[in-house]
């Protein structure tokens, strides 16, 4: 049947009926299958989580037939279910070389899509209490996504029955609302205050990526000073190493080159003189970007040495690189 609007996008969630797992998919279509009209030998394979429609994801109960209506569109979207091609091609090759498989295609899909975590990953690595570095001081209309993401992180932890401790000096945020976090500290997001909270609360893990640049910088400083290892606090989510490598312009360019991708010619400098010398080698106009800076503070474009000198002084006033 024809849908009113259709499903069009790169991150649409679909549930696999054999395992109950949810996958992100690319879709670009305006029709759905009425599962109530399916013949008895067919059953749904995937169902859209947003509107409970079937995007043509059906499978035969006995014969090796299945279909989906996911549209990679030149691989622009997620690749969660790219293995569907592997299962299909392996079934075809196996049919030619070994004859019909004793394992149904439906079961083969379940085997490939099933995820069974080990007891160690469920119990040994599961934190009891998590510290969340919040969004910090924000103005109205500024960086609200960090308040939102932090709020969602708290809700996710509570759903998993994990105790949450939030540090956020800004009382005018959603995440500091009464009853959201189990405990909230209205303290500045600085290494000194965060260490005091860690010492008092003794969390098992910490989330650094929900507070924007301020929280990232604070987390990097705490890691370098050995606070996390001192109190045996595990960094959850994005590792510190990845944060440093993406924030440090020089290291980031090296990592991009390592995987064979193109990156604009750049140099990391630590003084105005180094900036001027680097610009001569690269050639004007240049863009100066302060590393580890809040919202790119002190960054901009320069067409000549005078503009670059002023820009470099501003950037280095906020960052060492």
TrEMBL record:
<keyword id="KW-0067">ATP-binding</keyword>
<dbReference type="GO" id="GO:0004087">
    <property type="term" value="F:carbamoyl-phosphate synthase (ammonia) activity"/>
</dbReference>
<dbReference type="GO" id="GO:0006228">
    <property type="term" value="P:UTP biosynthetic process"/>
</dbReference>
<dbReference type="GO" id="GO:0019240">
    <property type="term" value="P:citrulline biosynthetic process"/>
</dbReference>
<dbReference type="InterPro" id="IPR058047">
    <property type="entry name" value="CPSase_preATP-grasp"/>
</dbReference>
<dbReference type="InterPro" id="IPR029062">
    <property type="entry name" value="Class_I_gatase-like"/>
</dbReference>
<dbReference type="Pfam" id="PF25596">
    <property type="entry name" value="CPSase_L_D1"/>
</dbReference>
<dbReference type="InterPro" id="IPR005483">
    <property type="entry name" value="CPSase_dom"/>
</dbReference>
<dbReference type="GO" id="GO:0006541">
    <property type="term" value="P:glutamine metabolic process"/>
</dbReference>
<keyword id="KW-0547">Nucleotide-binding</keyword>
<dbReference type="InterPro" id="IPR011761">
    <property type="entry name" value="ATP-grasp"/>
</dbReference>
<dbReference type="InterPro" id="IPR005479">
    <property type="entry name" value="CPAse_ATP-bd"/>
</dbReference>
<dbReference type="GO" id="GO:0005524">
    <property type="term" value="F:ATP binding"/>
</dbReference>
<dbReference type="InterPro" id="IPR016185">
    <property type="entry name" value="PreATP-grasp_dom_sf"/>
</dbReference>
<dbReference type="GO" id="GO:0006207">
    <property type="term" value="P:'de novo' pyrimidine nucleobase biosynthetic process"/>
</dbReference>
<dbReference type="Pfam" id="PF02786">
    <property type="entry name" value="CPSase_L_D2"/>
</dbReference>
<dbReference type="GO" id="GO:0004088">
    <property type="term" value="F:carbamoyl-phosphate synthase (glutamine-hydrolyzing) activity"/>
</dbReference>
<dbReference type="Pfam" id="PF00117">
    <property type="entry name" value="GATase"/>
</dbReference>
<dbReference type="InterPro" id="IPR017926">
    <property type="entry name" value="GATASE"/>
</dbReference>
<dbReference type="GO" id="GO:0046872">
    <property type="term" value="F:metal ion binding"/>
</dbReference>
<feature type="domain" description="ATP-grasp">
    <location>
        <begin position="253"/>
        <end position="307"/>
    </location>
</feature>
<dbReference type="GO" id="GO:0004151">
    <property type="term" value="F:dihydroorotase activity"/>
</dbReference>
<dbReference type="GO" id="GO:0005829">
    <property type="term" value="C:cytosol"/>
</dbReference>
<dbReference type="GO" id="GO:0004070">
    <property type="term" value="F:aspartate carbamoyltransferase activity"/>
</dbReference>
<protein>
    <recommendedName>
        <fullName>carbamoyl-phosphate synthase (ammonia)</fullName>
        <ecNumber>6.3.4.16</ecNumber>
    </recommendedName>
</protein>
<keyword id="KW-0436">Ligase</keyword>
